[in-house]
């Protein structure tokens, strides 16, 4: 099913409704916001098999993956609801007056308040968890902001079903008209109009560097610049430390063959660059990883556009000087794979591929640092630890960085460890980057260009802070203050009162 792009007039009407809704919704209690998000989770579950089957037809993702992703999305909505009501994210603080101080100290109380309507651009590779009812939408609702979702054209019908679930929840919870809107648009004009609209106060985006950077630029070109929280490209480097590699080359190769090809490599945390020092152990790793990749069947990608981009970028990487093919899949597609993609020449197939190059080749050629979105990784062979450090310092910001290392490896290579830590949002030891746990401690974002703001990510309760701003109330009487800041603490939330974290009332 195709949907007509929204016109400028339709977008203006949507944004005006969202602006009107904002002035009502911002006054809703934390409990009411939480109830709304939990109602969305119920409606999403109630969509049943029809939602799963629609998503399967639009994305080529398998049923089990989509059922798991819907469950994760429901969990996200409920966890953001709980975090919203718990209110730690509000960062409420109170400094009571000291009248006899010279000069007198006033009563000052601070908390976060919602920014206003938030425009969300969903990801193509996660039709539920990072899309219409995903983390950006949930955290914006938690913050007290209306949401306008621009449907991803790669799964527009799926997005429409989820949007209707949100609208149904809004009606059942007596939310104001305009609390949520769903906009279609295949071209950049719709996206630009949404970002540039004066009622838009923030943007959430998950996708390519090109798309995210464009939204970021538009957001900063406005008369009133707005925050654009974009999660963009990342090659998620893995550093193979000598002692660990010598002890576990085969084990690591097996682990990373699975990570590189998980979901046909269509994860923003896919490990695209693996770096080690020339040694017999590294040769063993390259050999074993290549053998594992040869045995990994090709699989269908999300759509022809992504598959074509993968082949183009992979082929371009393999054409670079001093880049050599290690292995590619030599295994037939699984029996359950649709016949349209059963052979490697299919326009939808992602062929698992491993390449290798020297450290110097990478340092001389920025093409090798570019994300190849799919089941591909390049192994970089450094001549020594000094070159490995140079490679680490040459990398841009990443969502993740991984060390495969023993304790001795880490203790003896502090310069490298610090260089790798400096470029990432999530620093992993002896595991794989694929898989993003939904919890408070997760950081899904990193230094530019992994994301446009390394301080915040789209996963975990801290994500709510993206769509709020601090405001300080000075010398307000207790009965006029928001409940979050009143002396008696009627919400029983944690607050910092005169430099002490407490739930106690202000005496």
Instruction: Based on Cα principal axes, name the global outline.
Output: globular
Helix/sheet category? alpha/beta
Helix content estimate? 25-40%
Summarize model confidence as the mean pLDDT. 95
**Any idea what the CATH superfamily of the largest domain is called?**
Aldehyde Dehydrogenase, Chain A, domain 1
Provide the CATH topology of the largest domain.
Aldehyde Dehydrogenase, Chain A, domain 1
Q: Which percent band covers the strand fraction? A: 15-25%
Number of strands: 19
Report the uncertain regions.
Answer: 338-342
* Count of discrete domains: 2
* Number of helical stretches of at least 4 residues: 15
- Main pleated-sheet profile: 7 strands, mixed
Distance between the termini: 62 Å
Record the strand order, biggest sheet. Answer: 11-13-14-9-8-15-16
Radius of gyration of CA atoms, rounded to a whole number? 25 Å
Structure commentary:
The protein is α/β, with parallel strands linked by helices and 507 residues long. It folds into 2 domains: 14-232 and 455-467, 3-Layer(aba) Sandwich (Aldehyde Dehydrogenase, Chain A, domain 1); 238-429, 3-Layer(aba) Sandwich (Aldehyde Dehydrogenase, Chain A, domain 2). The protein is built from 15 helices and 19 strands. A 7-stranded mixed sheet has the order 11-13-14-9-8-15-16, with helices on both faces. It is globular and about 75 Å long.
